[in-house]
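Look over both lines before class:
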Amino acid sequence: MNTDFHRIRRLPPYVFEGVNKVKARLRGQGVDIIDFGMGNPDMPTPQHIVDKMIETARDPKAGRYSASKGIIGLRRAMAGYYDRRFGVKLNPDTEVIATLGSKEGFANLANALTAPGDVIICPNPAYPIHAFGFIMAGGVIRHVPALSPEEYLSGIGRAVRHSAPPPSVMILSYPSNPTAQWVDLDFYKDAIQLAKRHDMLVISDIAYSEIYFDDNPPPSVLQAPGAKDIAVEVNSLSKTYAMAGWRVGMVVGNERICAALARVKSYLDYGAYTPIQVAAAAAMNGPQDCVDEIRAIYKSRRDVLVKSMKQAGWDIPAPPASMFAWAPIPEKFRDVGSMEFARMLVEEAGVAVAPGLGFGEYGEGYVRIGLVENEQRVRQAARNVKKFLGNADEILGRAHNALAAQ
């Protein structure tokens, strides 16, 4: 039997696997790993949300099948959120789809929109599902460098001119995972005009819309004039309400695209467990002070990370948004690359980060640091990093000798 499956062949080995193996080995030896590698919120889900889920779960009917595009109460709550937060009016029946997290929504959008060989404009570096969701659906990715929003937007025109067939979808993602950059409404206006000029649809990932650190909250692409003609937005409750494991997201915007997604989902799932959907609606309709508290925790951790690492000898730019810092590799380790640097850092300092190469070729030279450890642990990590950088010559020498001996 041939087990060399076509779609699996299109997926490279998991880039983070090498670092994960080192983490697992060290933890098995009893080493304390300060793990900034995965964007997994560590604070508890607010109690009123948990209470609503428990209350609903006690209903004898709660265990029945739900609705693949989400119960109407949740879709109304999502539409209400967009109205309050962005001033965007949505029809909860036709322009809102509840998803099993933003990742599932994005992947099934790719299946709904993509014919074999379709060309997709994708930022690089980017969250892996942005490219691989479409790759698994049979699409072809046209990577555009995106170390800044301006670089990405200016590169799309060149990519369109040199793509055959012409691209059918353009992906946006701000605040960005991994680079933590965000954009203003003028950027979205320009992006929508560009997409319309080249007959492209737009998918915007805004999963970090509520994790920002100045007075101006990130906008939605749907605020741009004419955006709903061609665009949908993927959003999530995971980071906003510390509900990552609950798997509640949404796709909102263009009615035709939402209908295509709804049809795909109708064949694949029956929606999330109903009590989870009811609790998610309670999260969006209820008091929002918990969102401010979660945002303040990330901001405090960001400030401690940037200050303590600078004192340790590692200059990390302060991210304006998201739950990540996008950090250039320290000068002495630049030549070894992000994969080897991440391996050395966890091996020698007990500090785990995500190598930038895992987010695309243009992520090389950087690592992503998740704000997922408390301030005391962040300071401990900085102390470990200071020793690591102080021993850089010895560490690099050992690595060189080990390589020469192979």
User: Anything to note?
Assistant: The chain is about 45% helix and 15% strand. The chain has two domains: 6-44+290-390, 62-285. The CA atoms of residues 290 and 365 lie 36 Å apart. The chain has a mean pLDDT of 94.
